[in-house]
Structure formats: structure tokens, C-alpha cells
Amino acid sequence: MRIYVIGPVGSGKTTLSQKLSKKYNIKYYELDKVAWDDEHGNIKRSDEEALKIFNDIIKQKSWVIEDVGREKFKKGRDKADIIYYIKMSRLKSYYRVSKRWLKQRLGLERYNHPPTLSQWFYYISTVNTYYSKQKEKLKSLEEYNDKVKYVTKKDINKILNEK
To answer: What's the predicted TM-score (pTM) here?
Structure first.
């Protein structure tokens, strides 16, 4: 089984991916960790390096991948058996990234990047970028209509409880 999860920052992609991974006993991958090298100081990888890592992932028999829907990782959507697109309003996304940042700042939640004020601005900027390109993302998914499921938080609970 190959599952690709797409959604805005703060939509619950990682949580859904982790739960699907556990449910089906398959490995999950955050494509932010493919695009960025956190082990060496949060350095953006070259496209060539990121694509090499990514192509090694999608060669596997099964996986759960989560991403914001970057075009350079389109091949994963081609190979996926199912694509979950998490629908969420921009306002809800602002709220969730701000809440996440505050929890990280207070030491209540683990983080990949130190929760500095500039990191919060980066999160907000990422939300803006995502929604400015949302129409193109949705249009690019039209070719996968047979395997795309557009889901809300309520739908996610149903998916996780299915046999």
C-alpha cells in the first residue's frame, strides 16, 4: 500500500500519516525531512539530493508520504494507491501553526526548528504561500481523480476506524 497525504501546514498531515503507518504497519516519511537536512543545521538540500532520497523512498513496496504537495515530488502521487488531500481553511491553518509554535515555545511540544519569532513568521509565510498556490495544487490533482480523497478532520477519524 502506498499512501500520499497532502495538506496545508498545521492540517494534521504528520498525525494522520503516523496513524496510517501504525494501522497498516508501513513506514511513513515527512518530505520536509527530505527537502531539508535537519541533521546538519536545517540546510535546504539541492533538488538532485532531495530527489535521490525521494526516489529511494518511492521504490519501496509500501509507504505513507506526507507533504504540502510540492511539484518536484509529483512522482510519488503517480505511484500512490491513494491520495488524501486534507481540506482546511486558511484561518484554521493560521490558528493551528500559531498554537503549535506557542506549545513549542513553552516546551510542551517537540520541534524540528527552534520556536523563535522568526520561525513563527516563517510558518505564517508558509501558510500564505500554500493558499496562494492552492488552486494549482487542486488542479494538478484532477488527473488522479480515481484515487484522491478530499477529507476533513471528521473524515480522518472515519478513515482511521475503517477495517
So the answer is: 0.89
